[in-house]
Here is the input.
Amino acid sequence: MSTSTSLGVVQKFLSEYLNQTPKKLKIVDSYLIYILLTGILQFAYCCLVGTFPFNSFLSGFISTVASFVLAVCLRIQVNPENKLLFSGISPERAFADFIFAHLLLHLVVMNFIG
Amino acid sequence: MKTAVKLGLIVLSVLVPVYTQSSKDTLVLLDNLVIKDTHSRFFKNLQDSGYKLSFKMSDEAGLSLKKYGVWQYQHLIIFAPGTDEFGGDLSPETIAEFVDNGGNVLVSGSPGAGDAVRDLAAEFGLELDDPGSYVIDHINFSPTIDSGKHTSVIADPKNLIDAKPIVGTKISAPLLYEGSSLLLDPNNPLVLGILRASSSAYSYNPNKPVTDYPHTVGRNTVLIAGLQARNNARIVFTGSLEYFSDKLFTAPVQHKGKTVDKSGNEDLSKSIVQWVFKEQGVLRLSNVSHYKAGEKNPPSAYTITEDVVYSVVIEELVNGVWKGYTGTDIQLEFVRIDPFVRTYLKKVDGTGKYEAKFKIPDVYGVFQFKVEYQRKGYTFLNSATQVSVRPLQHTQYERFIPSAYPYYASAFSMMFGVAIFSCVFLHFRDKTKSE
Here is the structure.
């Protein structure tokens, strides 16, 4: 039974994901992966070099983390399968919230990055 | 023309001492009027230097240093060792009050000293040896003056304290001494042993066989002691009234095979009088100023890691005129509870201006510029100027730090990513639906 091994679970997950996820969500997912990579790279750099301008490190890292969180929120709210959970929030409204939160985020990041 | 200039100079020379010196009123207490004659040279030297001496008997009824709250005298000389109790207002306590208010005192004890002088000595951290005990030295004594008991002791000028303001520079003749010794309080940090006896001296009653260990032996036998109080008033004590007498001033001395016509007593007494009565070794500190390097006025608060310049004027009283002090060991401390910076003050020019330049440490708080100069024989200089040092303002930190470029890049890339993503997301048309 290929589904009982962990490799089998992963393979089934990947094939279901690629077949059944709408393209819109896949766009969000690729954006999420991009944010994740930047965050990991940044953290690795900080571990190597040290935390000298600690405010800059925090600002950059939190920018990636917050962007990731906001994108995840957008994905959840835009997913048609969750329409019943978010009955009062249309996808357009979700995107508008996403952009508004990003504006605030980048304002704060620019101030704190020094 | 010449006479006019001469007259002008004479007038000026009279005026200058008046303007630069405080009063020279001196009260001299004697227990026997004959001292005026036996010590005539000493008193004449004083009067030639401009001191106004008032001779009084030490147990006179109307004696007083203060009248209606005003001090009548600037200096006090007590050549009355036999006194048991001072007359009038005077007592060890009132004399201590006199010193607390800046008065200077020169006191002479003797082997027959009474309670008054002994109590006075105790007031200043000194102790006269037991009644009847003399300083005895069987090796360094003067055979011409001595009565046979070796109590006329010779002290080598090398036993003088190493302080130029107190002893001057020119004492080369040996010194004669006949009297009791002084004990210094070992716990008193301000008391100075100006003249000590040789290593072969000791202090005991010459008429009794030595049965106990003498109170002072060898170099601990202090012949002349001094004290500079924390308010810079000065006191000198000696155990011998004969030290200042004409007899010892003019006596020839035979010491170590050499004969000297005149002992060094008179020269040393002149130096000591100049020191006690604040003519020599007097310093003053003025014109403290501090500013940022390159500016002239101090800011309301310094910032950390700034360059600061501190300057001060230190002057010395030389022959009645304030001249710039030449010292190489004056230190400046920048203190916030503990000193963070300690540096030497460097002389800038001949007028006594000293300057120090340093960088304020990377610590903020309330600091003090402290100059504390305490050297033997000189007045104590203590100056503290408080300044505040504040941390960097929000806009004074470094910007665009090279090691933070990756973080700047990631922040901007996030913004860029949002822009691209939102374009793609908004313009996305679900192709399967249309089909």
